[in-house]
Give the backbone structure.
Amino acid sequence: MESELKNMNSNPPTSKEERPLLKSESDVSAAIEELDKKFAPYARTDLYGTMGLGPFPAAEKVKLAVAMVTLVPVRFVLAMTILLLYYLICRVFTLFSSPHREEEEEEEVVQEDYAHMGGWRRSVIVRCGRFLSRVLLFVFGFYWIPERRPDPETICSEEGETDKEEPERPGVIVSNHVSYLDILYHMSASFPSFVAKRSVGKLPLVGLISKCLGCVYVQREAKSPDFKGVSGTVNERVREAHRNKSAPTIMLFPEGTTTNGDYLLTFKTGAFLAGTPVLPVILKYPYERFSAAWDTISGARHVLFLLCQFVNHLEVIRLPVYYPSQEEKDNPKLYASNVRKLMASEGNMILSDLGLGDKRIYHATLNGNLSQLRVFHQKEE
């Protein structure tokens, strides 16, 4: 597949007369349509088109114009107020408290968080975080979020169990990944820890909040064999959450990237290496005009269009805790595959073998074709 895409854009012509491919606007549109078919898990199928660039119907342009001068400013101010309020709450209730630290030989401080802080102050941080996350979703237009919990007896897994007489605490929550909004929902539902880039911990406002969540900060795997890396850090946190009820629950997106919500990519094994029970959660974003899926569209444009929608929709399917069989504990790939199949079946999603590398190829090729399309539009003008 990668070679096919490279052939589409390789061997650039030396002159304008020697361009056999994509001679016209229709050729470029056909190439984009073909790309969308090959990389269906990442393609946008809403009214706003590929990369949110339209073309927009006249009625939609009017709606956007009205929303930008009425709805967007109000929502933006409210969202920033909520963010600042929660930052102040985190700041006040972590005063005079030392963060929990984990050190390694080759790193000064690998992890630093306030999620291991106990007592009433931790309770205030969690309760306020869950409440304000839900308020923020409300501000974004998610006025109601229906949750469905299938009966464990109606769910049949190939290997593991979804019900047990003596329930164990799941070591990790696993979810499909569609948008940055996924994080807000999970914060409102269970306030778990996430895996984040180390730079997130240094951001204004968000940095302290991420430490209160207990985020696992990661960077590229070190080459030294003594460095345990991302997988080792996550594995330890999963085991800790499983053993200790007071430890922060960790939340992982095993696909490793976002999709348009209709597909489920191959799961990475990080969440399943420890062999502990997992809690699968499925997020669906039904839409009529604009899809909340964060694919092929810039962050600023996505937030703007999201705020322009008066009502946005989110549906949640919370599956029972999945208890792995001994065979699954011994084989993390099998464990991940069986949980993935179960989530795809219950969430009515299509399994896809594409991954992050394919997504990058799709985006790069798509950007090239859209650049040509803009040239055609400029010539027409």
Q: What stands out?
A: The longest helix spans residues 58-93. The two ends are 36 Å apart (CA to CA). Residues 1-22, 105-109, 221-227, 375-381 have pLDDT under 50 and may be disordered.
